[in-house]
Amino acid sequence: MRPARALIDLQALRHNYQLAREVTGAKALAVIKADAYGHGAVRCAQALEAEADGFAVACIEEALELRAAGIRAPILLLEGFFEADELPLIVEHDFWCVVHSLWQLDAIEQARLAKPIHVWLKLDSGMHRVGLHPNDYKAAYQRLQASANVAKIVLMSHFARADELDCTRSVEQVAVFLGARADLTAEISLRNSPAVLGWPRVPSDWVRPGLMLYGSSPFDEPQATASRLQPVMTLESKVICVRELPAGEPVGYGARFITPKPMRIGVVAMGYADGYPRQAPTGTPVFVDGVRSQLLGRVSMDMLCIDLTDVPQAGLGSTVELWGKNILASEVATAADTIPYQIFCNLKRVPRLYSGN
Ligand SMILES: *Cc1c(COP(=O)(O)O)cnc(C)c1O
After folding, report:
1. Fewer CB atoms inside 10 Å of the end CB: C or N, the chain?
2. Atom of ligand 1 at shortest distance to CA of 78?
């Protein structure tokens, strides 16, 4: 059997969820969209269900998968419905629904629903992606409140730059939000992972941690609360071939690496078809037999090469961690000029093995 696999530590997932609650004192929706950022939405939801206040996903397809697996907890659709004909399913399965645009508000008012739904009314407080304009916000709230199709309403917005700890944009966004909310007394929800970890004074009855649940920091710099996160995923494989090369020999496609001296090279069963970033350059850290080493040359579809020159104890069959508790996914992301979010979401083909449940 091919040795590439992703080990998922569900105990670490629960630890990180509890950290989000502990540092905010708020209720927390565990964001498990995009198959729980590559970690497996159903298994992650099952591991968290006993303690989670609810879950959040990107669309009804993701939410239905959770209900089909027996998840009974509240599930918020972060972009609401894409077409009004999803509304009966939203009612049937008790999904909570973001309203980010006036057309969604119109559709809710015009629908004939068997039961009123739970709405999270989204404000565009400055990110300028989705959300109602501040001038329309209070009137939209009042229309929802007046509609027989609406039960509870939560007020929400989303930060564009909360991962930049010395940037004042998040403070401005909070001010816009509080201004638009004015005298409305509903619960509020503003904070994603970087705001949970790095912006302790931002008010929130509900927080919406995603990335931090998986144990990865959204910040480029070390940060005190983020240092308490536990990585959930370990992507690992094994050395399937070892070769000794003299100086001056090319390694891999395009000869992007030429041995500067005699070297010992390990070939690892892991490639970009597994989601390991092809953009990761020579020097990207890997962990082999208890030692940090480095990637050499181009990442292939199914294999990549690492440096074993200074790891004499490692050889055929040695376990290699591509990221996990020793090599942080954020380190690999930085080397590959991307973000841990994308590193996790790209995971494919490798079997996921769960522990800690
Ligand atoms: C994805 C998402 C989150 C979670 O963001 P993280 O940075 O992963 O914590 C929170 N809120 C909304 C609206 C989202 O789309």
Report:
1. N
2. 13
